[in-house]
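Person: Show me a sequence?

Helper:
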Amino acid sequence: EVQLAESGGGSVPDGGSLTLSCTASGVTLDDYNIGWFRQAPGKEREGVSCIRRSDGRKYYEDSVKGRFAISSDNAKNTLYLQMNNLNPLDTAVYYCAASTDSGLDQSVCWDPDEYDRWGQGTQVTVSS
């Protein structure tokens, strides 16, 4: 059974930092597109950052460029998201996801519709 488990969320002040982790079981993250997504109240889920497995390229949503960093540890089968200089607009539930279905479009990694495996989410709250 494929399971993705996020951790590391919490409440921080404006300008604070957090590191999210996503540990996988039943699937090898290094074999697939993997990414972080977030959903704020009343808003659609959006891509934050992802790794396209075909070439290892990393993508970032414009508002997090220069502040967030995505990485993976293959030995631990874990995906990370280092988040620095957080602001209240970053407040959301953060999800990790893996695109394991061969029928999904593997050329893009920033579209949540191209992911089939999701974690339960972890809350990030940034106070002003």
